[in-house]
Design a protein that fits this description.
Immunoglobulin-like, 153 residues, alpha+beta, 7-stranded mixed beta sheet, 2 helices
């Protein structure tokens, strides 16, 4: 084979290898809904979605935050929505340990003297129950609606 033909074949092989190694990202599907704790809506109630099995990726790890009405929107690390699949769901809600009032984004324990406490009980809390949570959710193609009331102990 001539040198020109060999270079052409090597170039085509390299192009194919590079093209094959780069996968298209999976489709992400929007997840919204409502989350309450003991029937009451809380602003800044954090909701975490992790894959029920398999490796964590930027497409299947997500967090959301409720507004004052408990409305929820979820965003994966990669962007809006989540990859289709089965997820384990956990929660965090921090209240002022003294007053029991909602802690806002401007409250800083070291500056405002606010001591917070996590009020979501096991097995729903994110800190200790990531593998034990009884809450699962299946994300399917299209819009997904997640609604859950975390029971108070």
């Amino acid at each position: 084979m001539g040198l020109l033909v060999r270079l052409l074949v090597l170039g085509l092989l390299a192009t194919n290898l590079v093209g094959c190694s780069k996968k298209d990202p999976p489709a992400l599907h929007p997840v919204s809904g409502k989350v309450t704790y003991g029937g009451k809506a809380h602003a800044r109630l954090m909701v975490y979605f992790r894959p029920a099995s398999g490796p964590v990726t930027e497409y299947n790890l997500a967090v959301g935050e409720t507004d004052g009405d408990g409305k929820l929107g979820i965003m994966a690390v990669h962007g809006g929505g989540l990859q289709a699949g089965e997820y384990k769901v956990t929660f965090n809600l921090y209240l002022d340990a003294k007053s029991g009032k909602q802690v806002t984004g401007t409250d800083k324990p070291d500056e405002a003297g606010v001591t917070t406490k996590q009020v979501i009980p096991a097995p729903y809390d994110d800190g200790t129950s990531q593998d034990k949570t009884p809450v699962t959710f299946t994300v399917r193609a299209g819009q997904n609606d997640f609604e859950f009331d975390i029971p108070k102990p």
